[in-house]
Amino acid sequence: MEWLNLSDSINQITLIGAIAILALTIFVAGNYIKKMKDSKAEGELTEEEWDGIREFKNDIPIGWGVTYLVLIIWALWYWFVGYPLNSYSQIGEYNEDIKAQNARFESKWANIDEDTLKKMGQNIFLVQCSQCHGITTEGNNGIAANLVDWGKEEGIINTINNGSKGLGYMLGDMLPISEVAPGVLNNDEDKKAVAAYVMGELSEAKKTKYPELVSKGKELYMAATCNACHGEDGKGMGGMAPDLTKYGTPDFVVEVLEKGKKGHIGTMPSFKNQMLTDTQKKALAHFIYSNEN
């Protein structure tokens, strides 16, 4: 390889520029050296004096003056026209950019199919959720909730056994059934029946793995005083307690994402300000509830 290839136009331009800079430097330096040799101390002096030394009165260099004026004009434009102090912020610009991007995203995926929705949800889960819940969604050895059971009968049974806390409802945390209604729901079959009733009748999902237990579950739902907080219709008595009609639906996932949760085993932060779009939240829910999870 040649160290200097003059057939390359870039090298030619660079060499010409270097020669021009060198010539200009020699010319300017020569003028200053000549001026230092030939110049005489003459001109009007300033009135200020220090230790017998006074300075010549010199006008501000033209380049400096022009620069000052340009900077002043630019500053006035920047503060009052380009980016007004009372109406612009970088955070505001960032939020507007995010909103615009989210709008494009929603438009692109407006008619997304079920399979693509699940794949999108899996990708979002791996980026946003797997650090705590694990890549298998099983809770990472108890560090976070086991999402394999979430939105299913097993999740309800787990809540019946252990209670639930941290969603910030006015009626407070749910205690284990052994403390709420001792002597009721003493066996696994009864708990499974209540879970079947919630999933098959109350939830908008309207599907359960145990349809034969739904009618029994309805009786036990009342006997265990579940209706005292959740209401007979399961809607949570106007926000006083969790709305069981959302359980097993994307709306339930969205609620937990936006509220966060201070649970028994740790705190899940709110994702309300994480700029997830409605489609992304829906996709995450479909993945969690899918057979792939």
TrEMBL record:
Pathway: Energy metabolism; oxidative phosphorylation. Its cofactor is heme c. Residues 116-202, 212-292 form the Cytochrome c domain. The chain crosses the membrane at residues 12-33, 62-80. Coiled coil: none annotated. GO terms for cellular component: plasma membrane. Keywords: Cell inner membrane, Cell membrane, Electron transport, Heme, Hydrogen ion transport, Ion transport, Iron, Membrane, Metal-binding, Oxidoreductase, Repeat, Respiratory chain, Transmembrane, Transmembrane helix, Transport. Heme c 2 binds at residues 174, 226, 229-230. Binds 2 heme C groups per subunit. PROSITE patterns: CYTC. The keyword Nucleus does not apply. One of its GO terms (biological process) is oxidative phosphorylation. It is found in: Cell inner membrane. Belongs to the CcoP / FixP family. This is Cytochrome c oxidase subunit III. It comes from Helicobacter valdiviensis.
